[in-house]
């Protein structure tokens, strides 16, 4: 029997929101994007016009009040996540929210309370779990292909720095919450809960970042509750391309996830051998974003439990907040204290 399509309302039509609009409108057959909301009227109207949407709002509450909508996809600014998710929870309709869940644990826990009390379905957005490489890595770990995993390494390097306005910790949460939250999620997904963390960092490439109180390079080392070890490095100055990797050392072998070359082409001349690189996140994780949204829509249609829960969002945020505290205090901290 053919499944009924799910009417989706998109909240947030900025950089990532506009990408999500394209995917929902053109690449997920089970989804029907019928409405968009954004605080900036021009962004909402541009999105509605591009995809032929008759419903266009400047308030998320007006969109949530629309009873034609079956499910919400939240890609609003992180500082607005709590308000939007709490309001959506009251409608008891399924909600998807992009990472990070919030910028503070108090807000995240308030969001969980609202969703739990209402009883609606909530799915967290961590697209790397839907990337074929990261999924294959998870399967290999679970099959015992490398024995027992003992050390995790994650690395995320952006090709350029965002605007200073974006980098301000009041907006981004700081470099760790903005950049490392995906690495933290994969570290947990692959090897379990993190017990303690120590982070060091600084402004090493872009002196102007100092004026907003953020960093441009950070290294985190951590111990799992199991006693296993981990390390994550993040950088704003991977000027050669978008470089995202993970490695797990096991008792019987090692697996590595990630790639830098975008297309399988080498140019070999007298000057040397060259290849292209992955430009940025839409190219590297485009299919993962599509698969993540398709999974949410399918779960809504089939009335299934979410593939990634709010608890995953909270625990990842908890580690990120702990690491940020460590960075500021130059001390090792226990995650359970947050």
Detail the poorly predicted runs.
none
Q: How many beta-strand elements? A: 15
Say which CATH homologous superfamily of the largest domain is assigned. Answer: Dihydrodipicolinate Reductase, domain 2
Strand order of the largest sheet: 12-11-7-10-9-8-15
Shape: globular
Strand percentage:
15-25%
- Assembly type: single chain
Can you give the helix content as a percent range?
A: 25-40%
Helices and strands, in order, run as: EHEHEHEHEHEHEHHHEEEEEEEHHE
Number of domains: 2
Structural class: alpha/beta
Report the radius of gyration as a whole number of Å: 20 Å
- Main beta sheet strand tally, sense and closure: 7 strands, mixed
How many DSSP helices?
11
Which whole number gives the mean pLDDT?
97
Give the distance, in angstroms, between the N- and C-terminal Cα atoms: 48 Å
Short structural description:
The protein has 338 residues and is α/β, with parallel strands linked by helices. The protein has helices at residues 15-26, 41-51, 60-64, 81-91, 105-118, 132-143, 164-167, 169-172, 175-191, 281-302, 310-329; strands spanning 6-11, 31-37, 55-57, 71-74, 95-98, 122-125, 149-157, 194-202, 217-224, 229-235, 243-250, 254-258, 267-269, 272-274, 333-334. The longest helix is centred in the C-terminal third of the chain and has 22 residues, at 281-302.
